[in-house]
Specification:
Length: 125
C-alpha cells in the first residue's frame, strides 16, 4: 500500500448541529486510518466559534478542539456539518468569515446535508 501523508481534516460545528453529521465523517476518516500506517492518513479537528460546550440537536454535548481564531491555517479538507434548523438560522459571522478566509484555501471542502448552506451566507457586516 502506498504511503499517504497526514492530512488535516476540519469539521465545523455549532449549537444545534446534527450529531450524525459530525460523528459520521469523523468515523469514516478514523476507519480509513486503520488501513494506513501511523505516519499516513487523516488527523481530524473539530472547529467552532468557541471551545466552550456546544449542544447538538439531540442534546449531546460537544466540544471543539479549536475556535475560529485559533484555526488561522490551511486545512487539507474542510467540512461544514449540517443541522435540522441550520436553514432557518441567522448567519454565523465568525463561521462565514473563517470560511471565506481559510475554508476556500483547502484542497477539498464540502458539507454534510444542510451544512451546504453555509457557503451561501453573507455576514451581517
Amino acid at each position: 500500500m502506498r504511503a499517504v501523508p497526514i492530512r488535516d481534516v476540519v469539521v465545523i460545528i455549532y449549537d444545534g448541529v446534527q450529531c450524525l453529521d459530525v460523528a459520521g465523517p469523523l468515523d469514516v476518516f478514523t476507519e480509513a486510518n486503520s488501513f494506513l500506517g501511523d505516519d499516513d492518513g487523516y488527523r481530524c479537528v473539530i472547529l467552532a466559534a468557541t471551545t466552550a460546550l456546544i449542544r447538538a440537536s439531540n442534546g449531546m454535548p460537544l466540544t471543539a478542539h479549536l475556535d475560529f481564531k485559533e484555526a488561522a491555517q490551511v486545512f487539507h479538507t474542510v467540512l461544514v456539518a449540517g443541522g435540522p434548523d441550520f436553514p432557518d438560522r441567522l448567519p454565523d459571522d465568525a463561521m462565514s468569515i473563517w470560511l471565506r478566509e481559510w475554508g476556500v484555501r483547502a484542497e477539498r471542502y464540502g458539507s454534510i446535508c444542510t451544512g451546504a448552506l453555509a457557503e451561501c451566507r453573507q455576514t451581517s457586516e
